[in-house]
Amino acid sequence: MKPQDLVLPTVAALNPYEPGKPLEELQRELGIGDPIKLASNENPLGPAPLAVAAMRAALADVNRYPDGANWAVREKLAARHRVAADRVFMAGGSVEVLNLLAFLFLRPGLNAVFSEHSFAIYALATAAAGGAGRAVAMRDGFYFDLDAIAAAIDADTRLVFLDNPTNPAGTIFKRAAWERLLARLPEHVVIVADEAYFEFVRDPGYPDSLDYHDGRRMIVTMRTFSKIFGLAGVRVGYAVASPEMVQLLNKVRQPFNVTSIGQAAVLGGLDDHDHVRRTLAVNAAGIAYLEGEFRRMGVAYVPSHANFILAEVGDGRAVYERMLRMGVIVRPMGGYGWPRHLRISVGLEAENRRLVEALAAALAA
Ligand SMILES: Cc1ncc(COP(=O)(O)O)c(C=O)c1O
User: Fold this and answer.
1) Per-residue confidence (pLDDT) for residue 144, from 0 to 100
2) Which of 107, 149, 304, 342 would you label with 312, given CA atoms 20 to 30 Å apart?
3) Which of 40, 224, 257 to mutate to test the pocket of ligand 1 (most atoms within 8 A of CB)?
4) How much distance in Å is there from the Cα of 110 to the middle of ligand 1?
5) Shortest-distance atom of ligand 1 to CA 96
6) 49-269 is classed in which CATH architecture?
7) What residues does each domain of the chain span?
8) 1 CA from centroid of ligand 1 (Å)
9) CB-based burial of residue 350 (10 Å sphere; 0-12 exposed, 13-18 middle, 19+ buried)?
10) pLDDT the model gives residue 26
């Protein structure tokens, strides 16, 4: 007997999530002294300074277990979103919420619906729980088709995962399409609005899913501290849902799922409005610069609402490898079904310039 013979076939067939290449790995493998990483949609400015200060102060107490109820952070987030604290669920990164939802609501015979080319964890979490994933084709290549998503829901659907903005295309769906989907949503379906890049969106038509928690439908809104607050390494995310949904999530999470350092980071980071402002300014300037350069170079791209941009470069894997050797890490998109594309995270001004130079050289090679 082998261990893989003892698990669900959907689990045995899984390929683990492939993250962006870490900087240290590139330094080790290719001996490149000053690589830059624009591969994981991180905050190029670094962590929010107020979060760093709070984490430093919290270090002295790490002999103690964290507050398993995440009380202070839930209170603070509840006040920010004007909801009761029993509607906030804290997690070790928002990815944990996805896994717990799949664990709770899926099993063999049931399915989850999501968009093709969406965040890879939806398919992974679904398969890990033994559910079937239904990936619905995008419209015009890169845009959500929420009507087709509604049509793909059946009696065995329990979850609909929607990343808005979507990773890696960077596009959004608008209020009218979202409201049409909600109107068609059967009672037995939980809709997961994964808003990891919420703060970056400036389009007035962008729906805030928190406005739609009216008690009639099962909506889970997910947000993260990994992006705008620059705390990806600390692993903190959260969900806002009904008290009943939060209770279910609490039953299946591990007891101390957010570290004391993570909780301190949230308490400090949420007050760091200056860091948020600077991050948005750097991102907007970076997107404008990259889009301008791509146009100049004749590189097709998808206009982005987030902190990354999808660009069509031909043989994505080959261009990625060439850029790696120049010390620039981006993300090839073959695994997402787009072998001709790279996903490029917005960096600091100098990093964006170096990215453009490396891309131009890699395309000319
Ligand atoms: C759409 C989407 N959701 C969730 C996450 C995960 O965020 P976290 O770091 O909170 O687990 C990401 C990270 O890249 C993402 O792109």
Assistant:
1) 98
2) 149
3) 224
4) 24
5) 11
6) 3-Layer(aba) Sandwich (3.40)
7) 3-46+273-364, 49-269
8) 36
9) exposed
10) 79
Strands 308-312 and 36-37: unpaired
- Gap between the terminal Cα atoms of the chain: 50
Averages of pLDDT over runs of 10 residues in the chain (365 residues) are 92 87 82 90 98 98 98 98 98 97 98 97 97 97 97 98 98 98 97 98 98 95 98 98 98 97 98 98 98 98 98 98 95 96 98 98 95
pLDDT at residue 31 in the model: 82
- Residue 95 C-alpha to ligand 1 middle, in angstroms? 6
Predicted local confidence at residue 29, as pLDDT: 82
Retrieve residue 201's tokens.
């969106």
Domain 3-46+273-364 class in CATH: alpha beta
Instruction: Please state the atom number of ligand 1 nearest to the C-alpha of residue 40.
Output: 14
Pocket of ligand 1 (CB under 6 A): 41, 93-95, 119, 163, 167, 194, 196, 224, 226, 232, 237
In ligand 1, which atom is closest to the CA atom of 165? Answer: 1
Ligand 1, atom nearest to 226 Cα: 9
Separation of 285 CA from ligand 1 center, angstroms? 23
Give the Å distance between the CA of 322 and the centre of ligand 1: 27
CA angle 160/162/165 to nearest 5° reads 175
Q: Are strands 157-163 and 111-115 parallel, antiparallel or unpaired?
A: parallel
Neighbours of 65 (CB within 10 A): 11
Q: What is the whole-number distance in angstroms between the Cα of residue 197 and the centre of ligand 1? A: 8
